[in-house]
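Sync notes, pocket subgroup
Present: LS, DG
LS reminded everyone that the earlier model was apo-only. Rerun requested with acetyl coenzyme *A included. Inputs:
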Amino acid sequence: MTTQTKPSVNEGLEGIVAAETRLSHVDGERGELIVAGHRLEDLAQHSFEDVVGLLWTAAGVESAVTPRASPLPPGTLALLRDAASRRLAPMDALRMGAGTLVADDDRSAAAAIVGGLPVIAATYARLLAGHEPLAPRPDLGIAANALYLFTGNEPHPEHVQALNIYLTTVADHGFNASTFTARVITSTGSDFISAVTGAIGALKGPLHGGAPGPALDMVFEIGSPERAESVLRQKLAAGERLMGFGHRIYKVRDPRAEVLGAAAHRLFTSAGDLRVYDLARQVESVALRLLEEHRPGRRLQTNVEFYTALLLHGLGLPVAQFTPTFAVGRAAGWTAHCFEQRARGRLIRPQSRYVGAIPSMHRVPQPTA
Ligand code: ACO
């Protein structure tokens, strides 16, 4: 009789290190994030385009070009018009729009993605609002164009700075689900457009990039600080997860929440109305207390999505635009990981353990009619 050792199963690939990377390092115990050799807190001083360049260079791309917001091909625009007429969700429109981008090689694909996603996202938001699309302005950077293409107005420098901080803050974050998706697709030898289209699908989920909309809805549902405890207790008792809290890697406060919280505070202060900001801070503090009660020792802390919601709301973006805006920033990391994966060339192909029925080894001959 032969004995077979069963392979161990790591549900959710928790704790598995699948590759070495020069792109980012997430220290979940110390609450630190390093992106392409720079501390997160220092990245905010760079433009989003600079951070894309840092990531691509770290991925081994020689003389990386600066990506620019690029006009949409006619086919992409026609598709977005059709999607808007059917009122499709912005993340679905972004996924479909990204899939229409074409490029001859990896470098032009990466440039088309980083320069194309902000234009697709803003154009679609504008179409949904019933306005005609605008062409990106060559004198504006990606953050400024993202605001201009949506509102049609000259973007306010403080808004541009706040959106730039957001985009640089979310540019890369280790082997998160959407980045891993992009790397798996690239590892098969497929193209970057396919990889990023798949990544957009992964980002959409509420356990990943889809959380900020529901996080803001939760703050508005609570409405006033004295209701926070009862509403949050009800949600937890009903088995709901509090959006914007908890993280697979961070066991302390997500450092991105710190950077985005400070940016949101500046934005709301300069607008002269801190009511939503103050409410969100109070909701956060009650949520953290109740989560500790709910799962003692699990160390469920505020994640990036809570302050994403607040900052993007302060910029006047509709809730449905939050996750597409996340995709605009994360495109920096996705494309850099595609380059890094391409250089490795190793197919990503884990195993599974079969627990289904085993057919009999000896087939019983069936009588023929
Ligand atoms: N609210 C309530 N309970 C929670 C929360 C939360 N936000 N997060 C985790 N828990 C509970 C889980 O129900 C689980 O309890 P159980 O052991 O009784 O089932 C326990 O804490 C451990 O949670 P896990 O699911 O093991 O944590 P995991 O690492 O798989 O999940 C995740 C991380 C998905 C982010 C989770 O914390 C969550 O769902 N948060 C809310 C959604 C969210 O904010 N997503 C954005 C994440 S940031 C990003 O992706 C960019």
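DG: Residues 207-209, 211, 241-248, 295, 298, 300, 303-305 surround acetyl coenzyme *A (CB under 6 Å).
LS: The first strand starts at residue 24 and ends at 27.
Action: DG to write up.
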